[in-house]
Amino acid sequence: xxxxxxxxxxxxxxxxxxxxxxxxxxxxxxxxxxxxxxxxxxxxxxxxxxxxxxxxxxxxxxxxxxxxxxxxxxxxxxxxxxxxxxxxxxxxxxxxxxxxxxxxxxxxxxxxxxxxxxxxxxxxxxxxxxxxxxxxxxxxxxxxxxxxxxxxxxxxxxxxxxxxxxxxxxxxxxxxxxxxxxxxxxxxxxxxxxxxxxxxxxxxxxxxxxxxxxxxxxxxxxxxxxxxxxxxxxxxxxxxxxxxxxxxxxxxxxxxxxxxxxxxxxxxxxxxxxxxxxxxxxxxxxxxxxxxxxxxxxxxxxxxxxxxxxxxxxxxxxxxxxxxxxxxxxxxxxxxxxxxxxxxxxxxxxxxxxxxxxxxxxxxxxxxxxxxxxxxxxxxxxxxxxxxxxxxxxxxxxxxxxxxxxxxxxxxxxxxxxxxxxxxxxxxxxxxxxxxxxxxxxxxxxxxxxxxxxxxxxxxxxxxxxxxxxxxxxx
Length: 475
Fold this sequence. Notes:
Oligomer: single chain
């Protein structure tokens, strides 16, 4: 009997292994079929979602461009009126910023700032999404705050509004939780794509930073939504890249200088992140001010600066274009000594204005301000290199472009998004090697200093604060 039992045991074990293997293959096949079915179902919805998000992004952009033009025109006129004009500039910015902050704090606090950490929390199941309220408050609050001249960008808000449109679509279509996640992430990708005219960057940012999910259905839906939103934006606003800059062919000899730029951007990115966390700390004294007072105060300072230097206000697109033009100018070398103190002064002022604006909790992000700061840092490194090593083949406008990507990579810790975004915004395909060098050095520097990516740090703090509040209420 024992011989029989020993003889049948290997046979039974082999059959069990074969059955387990067949079950595993069947489960994998079923999972594949379900994923394919979901992909076929969600991609057409993502295309329609891209249309709506593209239209919303274009409307937001055009409204802001109108307000920016109106503010610039008025400030230029008021500069001729002396003290009265100064007062009017201060009132314009103070009232706009104050009203924008009040709208956010009163009706949708989650619409404050860029909205990216909140959207990450939604996709992780840690935050709730109130799509209609967020879209309304983000749109109107963003117009008020950004139109006042606050040094913030529209790209983060457009991303959060796009994700909210995706959430609204999921609710309307009664989608399951997984499809809802896909539509929210696809809407976010479409928002960033339409904001920057950068469909690949929109897709990659969501996969690299917001969702971090390379599921085939997610990938296909986000890609479709980004593409359609970008096409809608280009049909209405034109197909020109975001920045018009003449990229020069880079030289391998200059890669060391690009590496230095990357390290500088890594240090600046860490400083920027810590300043953002410090300025927006809910326990800080200035955050305890009565509801509209912080927005009014920061807005008044912004308006006062705008009276003397209106080009320093808002996201900084015009300022960055001016830096590119300066970098392309043959006369740049002649004014190197002057620029060596002028650019750091400009960088410091814009840095402080960005931190102050974001600390108010207004509906605006720091995508564009980071890019402007990176361009300034890039130009500074280029001018310094020309001054210290005159024989090195340096193209300052190239350094300004690469600086934008490197500072963004250091702050957000999304190097692939940084590289693709800048290439799409400038048509700077020839800069791929300097971009890789600088972004890798910036990323590594920030990582060595143990600095958390800014969106993760903001989300963690929000969750910790909410946990403490819940415990206090429970006790």
